[in-house]
Amino acid sequence: YRKHEWDKHGTCAATLQILNSQKKYFGKALDLYKQVDLNRCISELPRLPPISITLCVFQMTVLKEALTRAYGVTLKIQCLPPEEGEEAQTIGQIEFCFTKNLELRNCTEPKGMQTGLQLGTGELSVCNDTLPTYYPLQVQ
Predict the structure, then answer these.
(1) Residue-by-residue DSSP string for the chain
(2) Of 9, 29, 110, 132, which one is least surrounded by beta carbons within 10 A?
(3) Mean pLDDT of the chain
(4) Among candidate residues 97, 127, 126, 93, the one with its CA nearest the CA of residue 112
(5) Per-domain residue ranges of the chain
(6) What is the pTM of this model?
(7) Is 65 a residue whose pLDDT tops 70?
(8) How many CB atoms lie within 10 A of CB 104?
(9) Which fold, 54-134?
């Protein structure tokens, strides 16, 4: 997994001196992960009535607005559509975007660096703002 991430993303980021080795790249990724502290931020948001003990359920518009307010930038959120018989979509990926100086920026801007926090697998698409949205409590 680490080799794939370095080959796909790290070698591009290595044009920056601060990220020009595997140790620097993965070390800075961990620093940024701790800095944004996504799980803490989401755990403080208002939830919809639970559908499952292991999942948090949110209204997507509330989630987007709260994350924008918390970080001061627009994140890129993608979802897995509801499975057959289900009514809620599942967050599949949340991306934080950074400038080349590793400062947060809007993901709607065309240039810069992006780092994805993988929370799921499968076919990801733009989240539906009207559907309840699952977010796993335990992210590994």
Answers:
(1) -HHHHIIIIIHHHTTSGGG-SHHHHHHHHHHHHHHH-HHHHHHTS--PPPSSTTEEEEEHHHHHHHHHHHHSSPPEEEEEPPPTT---EEEEEEEEEE-TTS-EE-TTSSSSEEEEEE---S--EEPPTTSEEEEESS--
(2) 110
(3) 80
(4) 97
(5) 54-134
(6) 0.74
(7) yes
(8) 18
(9) Ribonuclease Rh; Chain A (3.90.730)
